[in-house]
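Appendix B. Raw example, untouched.
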Amino acid sequence: GRLAAERAGAAQREHAAALLARIEARRPHAGQTELMELDQLVHRHVHACAGNAYLQATLEEYFVLSLRLWFLVLERLEHLEQAVQQHHDVLVALRDGLGDQAEQVMQRHISDFEQEIRRVL
């Protein structure tokens, strides 16, 4: 998150703003498919903005594994809106070049994901 916010170029910041608009325009009770599509778009954009091909490839592998978990337990998760809000917050930090803030949001996002998965498994 920190690297993405610090290294993102103008076009990547514009894309972050477009993703923010898409998150804000989503239906109040968006379906699982729509939420998972947004999740993938946000994560992959953050990965790309970090500007490190090795890190991006590694994060992609972890992300694909985490998607398997999401799809197994998605209907039992209670805090999806919290994850969506964290996506919003990291995109704001990325768009605005706020490395500290992006790092904090991503750490919380990862920790919350782990806790939520452990709770439902």
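End of appendix B.
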